[in-house]
Design goal:
This protein is α/β, with parallel strands linked by helices. It has 14 helices and 13 strands. Helix 6 (about 130-140) links the parallel strand 3 and strand 4.
């Protein structure tokens, strides 16, 4: 039979954990795996501004006709405003083109296809550690994946020297993948001065930078979190961005992402964009309407946008509060080691330093689900589960 030689693939390290959690029967169970925001009640709520926009959309929608290959124009235009800032020269000169994509992952896959099949890129440089799907996406299109050092495990900080040493080996025309903010999984980002240095290095060495920008607003604010990207734009005329609204709009299941190409001029941007559209046509033809039209409605309406920003600020504040509480409680419950480094991390993840064996014990003995790298979703902590979590962690340390 045809399928007899097919072997089963191990479950996805992140999404597979969600499936295992669903099947978990113990009553006191905690899911800190997949990077999804949860409120103080442990729910992943629909943002109120989104709900309001959905109501308006429901009333005004008159057709379910196909979208264009690159999706909703207003959504793409609003995406550029968030990425570059309103009034940025790139917007005025039209030298960036955005295509709505199936989440940030879809944008990354389009980027990988463009790099491999249209630009003949040989290597992509990826931070070590990184989101596991980065490796898989680039391997899937046949680009060589190279690692650059990112994290100093003993001191729990950015391995700046290692990073610079490794990135000095990047060849002209290689893609360098950067996490725009809230590095996944470490939560550690370069400082503004370090971003400036990397931006200069990139321009001097001729890298093609690719920003994975999935957490804008979860670090320090919408504008603050775009520092990395805008610093690169000062030095680099060409750049790729895979962005996502899954987290900051809480629209995980609507698959709302975008792939943006910044080129030297409008003509070049249009030519590259035509290639992007030909890639999308063969991958999934055209994207879905609901999520993108909802987001476009929020972002072009000043009141709804302001309301969304308030809600985003609240999400960020809650994550920061839980981060502080987590560290304080670990100390109070008797953790011998120092976890203060967690306070300075950005975004929803805490790279805890827990070993795979400790993570396994947390799952097997306490029904606490964490990614085996030791990455904990801080947003999954609530006042109801944090005591149990910290007591359990102290037991496995
Ligand atoms: C995560 O890292 O948990 C999220 O980006 C969700 C995913 O697709 O892995």
């Amino acid at each position: 039979m045809f399928f007899d030689t097919i072997h089963a693939v191990p479950a996805d390290p992140i999404l597979g954990l969600g499936e295992a959690f669903k099947a978990e029967t113990r009553a006191e169970k905690v899911n800190l795996g997949i990077g999804v925001y949860k409120n103080a009640r442990g729910e992943t709520p629909i943002v109120k501004a989104v709900k309001e926009a959905e109501k308006r959309l429901f009333e005004s929608e008159t057709s379910k006709n196909y979208l264009a290959i690159d999706g909703v124009d207003e959504y793409n235009a609003q995406t550029q405003i968030l990425l570059f800032g309103a009034g940025h020269e790139i917007i005025a000169s039209r030298r960036a083109k955005t295509a709505q994509s199936l989440g940030g992952t879809g944008a990354l896959r389009v980027a990988a296809e463009l790099a491999k099949h249209r630009l003949d890129v040989k290597n992509v440089w990826i931070s070590s550690p990184t989101w596991p799907n980065h490796n898989a996406i680039f391997k899937a299109v046949g680009i060589e994946v190279r690692d650059y050092r990112y994290y100093n495990t003993t001191e729990h900080k950015l391995d700046w020297e290692g990073l610079i040493e490794d990135l000095s080996q990047v060849g002209k025309g290689d893609v360098v993948l950067l996490h725009g903010c809230c590095h996944n999984p470490t939560g550690i980002d370069p400082t503004p001065a370090q971003w400036d240095k990397l931006a200069q290095m990139s321009a001097e060495k001729g890298w093609l930078p690719l920003f994975d920008f999935a957490y804008q607003g979860f670090g320090n604010g919408l504008e603050e979190d775009a520092y990395s990207l805008r610093s690169f734009l000062k030095c680099n005329k060409e750049l790729l961005i895979a962005s996502s609204y899954s987290k900051n709009f809480g629209m995980y299941n609507e698959r709302v992402g975008a792939f943006t190409v910044v080129a030297e001029n409008e003509d070049t941007a249009n030519r590259v964009h035509s290639q992007v559209k030909s890639i999308i046509r063969t991958l999934y033809s055209n994207p879905a309407s609901h999520g993108a039209n909802t987001i476009a409605l929020v972002l072009k309406d000043a009141d709804l946008k302001a309301q969304w920003i308030v809600e985003l600020d609240e999400m960020r504040a809650r994550i920061k509060a839980m981060r502080d509480k987590f560290v304080a409680l670990l100390k109070a419950k008797g953790a011998a080691q120092d976890f203060d480094f967690i306070i300075g991390q950005n975004g929803i993840f805490s790279f805890s330093g827990l070993t795979p064996e400790q993570v396994d014990r947390l799952k097997n003995e306490f029904a606490i689900y964490i990614v085996r790298s030791g990455r904990i979703n801080v947003a999954g902590m609530t006042d109801d589960n944090i005591d149990y979590l910290c007591e359990s962690i102290v037991k496995v340390l």
